[in-house]
Design goal:
The complex is a heterodimer.
Chain A: H1 3-14, H2 18-41, H3 47-62, H4 70-100, H5 104-110, H6 114-136, H7 138-150, H8 154-161, H9 165-185
Chain B: H1 5-19, H2 23-33, H3 38-53, H4 66-69, E1 76-77, E2 80-89, E3 92-101, E4 104-113, H5 120-134, E5 144-149, E6 155-160, E7 164-166, H6 167-173, H7 178-197, E8 210-213, E9 218-220, H8 225-228, H9 234-240, H10 248-251, H11 258-274, H12 286-295, H13 301-304, H14 313-321, H15 333-344, H16 356-366, H17 368-372, H18 375-426, H19 431-451, H20 456-474, H21 484-502, H22 508-531, H23 535-555, H24 560-580, H25 583-603, H26 608-627, H27 631-651, H28 656-675, H29 679-699, H30 704-724, H31 727-747, H32 752-772, H33 777-793, H34 799-817
Antiparallel strand pairs in B: 1-2, 2-3, 3-4, 4-6, 5-6, 7-8, 8-9
The chains are: A mainly alpha, B alpha+beta.
């Protein structure tokens, strides 16, 4: 599928065509997945930088930049946020598992890894808490995804979800308090 | 705990109402709002409590896509139309853009920099650094073309667009043999070495900043970007670097130095050899990576890549470049490249596998307690270690001093060159402040000079610094302080060092280089001396430089650089002689210059530099021929020069100098045509020149050189219109030229040349008015005469001015007789 077609799908979806989203999601996900494998194999920096580069690259490859509008972008990042979350959390779990069962070479390096390990643990805890939150308030969970996993602003999140910025702001505040409480409770 | 939807709505409602109240009143409000509903009250209270503790929680997104959100495609920034994003990173987005020129589009890359709080001081620094970078020219460095700040305050850089792949992608996309990988590495070293010679540090060398074109040419990206954004704060340093590619110094939060880049080159070499980074800091803090680097060495490349071909030299070279302590690494990119070349040529390399000292140090570091208790053996080790450590400390101190010096001299020279230039432009009356700055700077240099005794390379740097200071104080033809006396003293200091160094015996190569440097210092000194009005003494310096350069060329007749230097000397000499009005001598040296450039072009017809030199020499000769009323000969030269410029300008559309020269060549040819009686042809050329100037000055309305040349063109255009009988048009053109020259002169009151040009425009306007039979003719001529007389009083009248004065006197005399 050409960049123009993919862009058209995104435009259709942002104009309310749900079927377009169903076609679009696997395309975006495959691309992200493919790039993520590449980046993570040769991981050479912290999460933030890589994941950002990853989505940028996917974005540039998938869409016809000349035809992208601001609203299209917000929608793209709306889908991407879910996938970024999955990729980061999978990666955190994999890293933890690898550390538990790793060989001798990795061990000497891993001794000083308190910080990184903590980050992985937090990522996994956040994912669990978000899952619970989505059963209580799906919209709030989605807002957190967009704000935290793609860095969308209040206004952009509102645009992507088709709700008012005031609502996003209120939900964001509530969701943060809710998640913080949930994560503090965990052992 | 789950709630029904209705309950959850109420929780949110009350929670938000509570948040609108002062923190102290919230609890009471919640209790009042949920009477008799214990679980509800507890739920809301615990959320409020969490809210109060959660400040900062989730505030930093795991992924920041903001740079991608701002789509600037289709927008025009400066003279560039942004086409589409090429990529984005933490610092901002890069767009493919087009610059419209001559109706065809030239692709460029525009980097938009997201800089929060872009303050005035950051903006100034940005401009300064941009100017430094713009002067950095190398085939393996992406050329910085332009830059600025958008109306919203977002800084941007315009760079040569390179259709290439980042190094990692390039290596991934095709099989690249070892010899080819080493060749790529040598190109990277050449680029980095050139930047270091210009006192520019990259600070963030990594595969994604190394582009490889389809032809396999390396192009380095983002030179000096870390400095552009200000590396002064630790935070900025940390942001600018990428941990996987950072040196130990950078991980400590120190500003990048030359040794930082040398280290990064080691990382790149390692990457090229093995396809993997030498260090994998995934998820570690800079501090942890630093500790790891201190206590361990990367796996040998031959082992990492399981490639026996890398064993020996290449292992040793890569690991030496990656030594933890800067003084154990290669000092310069050249030395590193030399070793790689030596390996390719099967000559011995300077890097050895880890030395006894190194191994003992590491051993002792790891086993301090054990060593102390192991009797004789340990004693021997410790004695040896004591000595080597002591030597290492001295080496370290010397090295640190040299590096600090280097950084200081660089900072000083740059601040002189750029920051002061700018303050001059802004504050035309602030001589005393500028004087203080120069005095302080000189004191510092002088104190360095005392310590530099015996250190040849530091003395060479010092001489270069004095020369830069001299240029700032008063090199004619460039922005300067107008402090000719100070400039002269700085030049004399530089000369003293250069002359002393030129007398030190050394290798043939060193001796010739020092002679060459001495010649350049003579040229600079000569130009400053001439600015004091003492043309004859200035001429002596020109002749000394010329003699050295003739000798150097004889020793190395095949060296294009030597021949270029000689040609430049002839050119300078021609300038001096024309100030004295020795037109015959001018013609002679101009002819010699043309010959030298012709030889250069014959030797290498594709060299743009030499074709430029040749065309410029032809243009200069043309102008002197016109002065000597040899229009036909001038016509021939100008036609050849124009041909060359047309080709150069088409080949290098981004080179503003070429575009200006093209316009100038049209003007020159126009003058020759006018002189030989073809006013129509002349007018056509003037118009061609003018339209180029208009385009160029529209791009940068403050650029003085383009405006100066444009005004000259207007004046000749006026003359052509007089010859064609269109007097009103001629008057308008001359009036426009006069107005522009007056503006230019007002902007740079110390420039006698600009002042003289105003007088020249007055004379021309007078000529036009005379042809019109206007009564105001005399007014303009008189004004021109007054101006020339004023210049005469100031002892700034050059030969051409004197001739003009005589001419005007004659015209006025005739007028008076009528």
């Amino acid at each position: 599928m050409s960049a123009q077609d993919v862009t058209q799908l995104l435009q259709d979806w942002s104009q309310g065509n749900r079927a377009a989203l169903e076609l679009l999601t696997p395309i975006v996900y495959d691309e992200l997945r493919r790039l993520a494998q590449y980046y993570m194999q040769r991981e050479n920096a912290g999460h933030t930088l890589q994941a950002t580069a990853l989505v940028h690259e996917a974005y540039l490859r998938l869409f016809d930049q000349r035809r992208m509008q601001w609203q299209n972008r917000a929608h793209f990042f709306g889908i991407a946020s879910q996938m970024i979350r999955r990729i980061l959390v999978d990666h955190a779990r994999a890293t933890r598992a690898a550390k538990r069962g790793s060989g001798a070479v990795a061990l000497s390096l891993d001794e000083a890894l308190g910080v990184a390990e903590k980050k992985d643990v937090e990522m996994i805890a956040l994912d669990d808490a978000l899952r619970t939150l989505s059963t209580v308030d799906a919209q709030q969970a989605q807002i957190v995804e967009m704000r935290f996993f793609t860095g969308l602003t209040i206004e952009e999140t509102a645009e992507a979800l088709g709700i008012s910025p005031a609502t996003v702001k209120r939900d964001w505040v509530t969701a943060k308090a809710w998640l913080f409480r949930e994560m503090s409770r965990q052992p | 705990m789950t709630f029904s939807a209705g309950r959850w709505e109420r929780v949110k409602e009350v929670f938000h109402q509570a948040l609108t109240l002062p923190a102290a009143d919230r609890q009471a409000f919640v209790a009042a709002a949920t009477p008799g509903e214990g679980t509800m009250e507890a739920e809301i209270s615990s959320l409020l409590e969490a809210h109060e503790q959660a400040s900062g929680f989730l505030d930093d997104p795991a992924v920041d896509l903001r740079p991608m959100m701002e789509n600037y495609a289709g927008r025009r920034i400066g003279h560039y139309l942004l086409e589409r994003p090429l990529g984005a990173g933490g610092m901002g987005a890069v767009y493919l853009a087009n610059r419209e020129m001559d109706g065809y589009a030239m692709p460029v890359a525009v980097k938009l920099i997201r800089a929060g709080g872009f303050s005035e001081s950051v903006a100034r620094r940005f401009r300064n650094e941009r100017q430094i970078l713009a002067r950095l020219h190398h085939p393996n460095i992406t050329q910085l073309l332009d830059g600025g700040v958008t109306p919203e305050g977002m800084p941007y850089l315009v760079m040569e667009y390179v259709a290439g792949q980042p190094l990692d992608g390039y290596l991934r996309s095709r099989p690249v043999g070892l010899a080819e990988r080493l060749r790529l590495f040598l190109e990277i070293c050449a680029a980095v070495g050139e930047a270091h010679r210009n006192l520019i540090v990259h600070g963030d060398l990594k595969p994604s900043n190394v582009l490889v074109t389809g032809e396999g040419q390396v192009k380095l990206l983002d030179f000096g970007i870390s400095r552009l954004l200000g590396e002064e704060t630790e935070q900025a340093t940390m942001q600018a670097m990428t941990p996987a590619w950072a040196s130990p110094e950078q991980l400590r939060g120190e500003a990048p130095l030359i040794s930082t880049d040398s280290y990064a080159l080691g990382r790149l070499l390692y990457f090229l050899l093995t396809g993997t980074p030498a260090v994998n800091p995934a998820g570690r803090s800079p501090h942890e990576v630093l500790e790891w680097l201190q206590s361990s060495m990367p796996v040998r490349p031959s082992r990492a890549a399981v490639d026996p071909e890398l064993m020996g030299d290449l292992d040793n070279i890569a690991l030496k470049a990656l030594e933890f302590a800067p003084e154990d690494r290669y000092r310069t990119a050249e030395l590193l490249a030399d070793d790689v070349r030596a390996h390719l040529g099967s000559r011995p390399i300077s890097a050895r596998s880890h030395t006894w000292r190194y191994r003992t140090q590491k051993f002792v570091k790891r086993n301090r307690g054990v060593v102390a208790g192991v009797g004789l053996v340990a004693l021997a080790v410790l004695v040896g270690l004591g000595t080597t450590l002591w030597q290492a400390r001295i080496a370290q101190r010397n090295y640190e001093r040299a590096e600090r010096r280097f950084a200081d001299v660089r900072r000083l020279a740059n601040s002189f060159l750029f920051e002061m230039d700018e303050s001059i432009a802004k504050l035309p009356g602030s001589t005393s402040v500028r004087g203080t700055l120069v005095r302080n700077g000189l004191q510092y240099l002088d104190s360095l000079a005392e310590e530099a005794e015996g250190d040849i390379s530091l003395r060479e740097e010092l001489a270069a610094a004095y020369e830069k200071v001299g240029e700032i104080q008063g090199r004619p033809g460039t922005a300067n302080l107008g402090d000719t006396g100070g400039a002269l003293r700085s030049c004399q200091k530089a000369l003293a060092i250069r002359e002393a160094l030129a007398g030190i015996p050394g290798s043939m190569e060193d001796e010739m280089r020092r002679q060459g440097d001495l010649a350049s210092t003579y040229v600079l000194t000569g130009s400053v001396v001439k600015a004091t009005g003492d043309i004859n003494s200035g001429l002596e310096f020109d002749r000394k430089a010329l003699a050295i350069r003739q000798r150097l060329l004889e020793q190395e007749p095949g060296s294009a650089a030597r021949r270029r230097a000689l040609a430049a000397s002839y050119t300078a000499l021609g300038g001096s002689l024309s100030q004295l009005g020795e037109w015959k001598g001018v013609m002679d040296v101009r002819r010699l210059a043309i010959e030298q450039y012709q030889a250069l072009v014959d030797a290498d017809p594709d060299s743009d530099t030499d074709r430029r030199g040749s065309a410029l020499a032809q243009g200069r000769m043309g102008s002197i021929l016109l002065h000597e009323k040899q229009g036909a000969a001038a016509l021939k030269l100008y036609r050849r020069a124009l041909d060359t410029w047309i080709r150069l300008a088409a080949k290098n559309p981004q080179n503003l100098g070429d575009q200006l020269s093209l316009a100038q060549a049209h003007t020159g040819l126009g003058r020759a045509l006018l002189e030989t009686g073809d006013a129509t042809g002349g007018w056509r050329e003037f118009v061609a020149g003018l339209s180029s100037y208009d385009r160029l000055t529209a791009q940068d309305p403050r650029e003085a050189r383009g405006r100066t040349l444009r005004a000259a063109n207007l004046l000749f255009s006026a003359r052509a219109q007089v010859a064609l009988g269109n007097l009103r048009k001629a008057a308008r053109l001359a009036g426009e030229a006069l107005a522009e020259r007056e503006r230019l002169s007002a902007e740079n009151p110390a420039n006698a040349g600009a002042f003289g040009e105003v007088a020249e425009a007055h004379e021309m306007l007078g000529d036009v008015r005379r042809a019109q039979g206007s009564v105001t003719t005399e007014m303009d001529w008189r004004r021109a005469r007054e101006m020339y007389l004023y210049l005469g009083n100031e002892k700034k009248l050059n030969a051409a001015d004197r001739e003009a004065l005589e001419r005007i006197e004659a015209k006025l005399g005739k007028q008076d007789l009528r």
